[in-house]
Amino acid sequence: MTVFFGNAELMKAVLVSSLLGVGTILSPATPLVINELRSKYWDNNMTTITAAVNLVNGILGMFFSGVLGRLSDKVGRKPVLVFLGVVGFSPVLSLLIVGPNQVGVMVNAVLLALSGITCITATGCPQCYALVAEVMPPEDREVGFGICFAALIFISGIANGAAYGLQALFHGEEARYYAVLIFTAVSDILYFVALKTVQIPTEARENPLEAVTDGISRRQSSREEHEDIPQEHQWPASVANQGLVDVELDDDDELESDDDESSSAVNEDGKCTGTDPPRLGEGIIGGLISPLKMMSGDKNIRCLCIISMLVSLPEVTLQDV
């Protein structure tokens, strides 16, 4: 957690992402106000109209996701996030301005369909993840993305629970509706305040695209260096990919190999051509034992090898029937 609490800008960026979700796709106004009004005024047509609104929203998101990404690379993340906030918050705020009535529901539906250009989903907003990437060092960005998503779900859950409790304090249908809508409007204001306080590093602000792709280039270089290591000196993929070990074999370590040749041969298509095709049980047992033969006598290494085999069983080739 030092990655999160030790980086003030990351904490602000995560808060921005969470508040954007609370004001849009994960807003408490959807179940507490909008759905009730739709059921009241649309009656039997509620399913059809809602499906049409969501369809237009999704189609617009498909076409505008790349456009907004390129735009934020050129002008910066914060101006685009301001635009996303204005457009994304407008459907719920329209009910507060027009009122929780039939006209307000129709205005909300139109604005909700058009807000698809923001590309905001239940997993977050791409521009928010790009903002998180710019306030973190490349090697910690994957952790930052996970924290950002977890905080989005956590904070939206708290906001929805608070809205439920707030609504219960009021009597009367309209009073309960306005209580939730005002609560959402306050979270929208906090979004813009939090966004303004985020300080993006100078190098990321001058070239946003390079700042995001820098971490990808470093990881690619790391993979290429790993591929240069001889195959017999590499850890099993299931262990190395999960970060269970970080040990290099010494040059003096000798790896034993089994010189016994199988009586079955496999052609280029992966079919057994020999008289003694491999059996499923023998393949699994051999896959579990052979890495232990190859490793040294260190008990820790053997334990790690067993863990890797349990996570990823070896691939077995069976005779084509």
Structure overview:
The chain contains 14 helices and no strands. By secondary structure, it is mostly helical. Helix 4 (46-75) runs antiparallel to helix 5 (77-98) and helix 8 runs antiparallel to helix 9. The longest helix has 30 residues, at 46-75. The radius of gyration is 28 Å and the shape is globular. 28% of the residues are buried. Residues 235-266, 270-301 and 308-321 have low confidence and may be disordered.
Concise structural overview:
With 321 residues, this protein is mainly α.
Number of strands: 0
Shape: globular
State mean pLDDT (0 to 100 scale): 76
Q: What is the chain-wise order of helices and strands?
A: HHHHHHHHHHHHHH
Class based on secondary structure composition and strand pairing: mainly alpha
Separation of the first and last Cα atoms? 53 Å
What integer value in Å does the Rg equal?
A: 28 Å
Give the helix level as a range of percent: 55-70%
DSSP helical segment count:
14
Q: Main β-sheet: number of strands, strand sense, barrel status?
A: none
Poorly predicted runs of 5 or more residues: 235-266, 270-301, 308-321
Strand content: under 5%
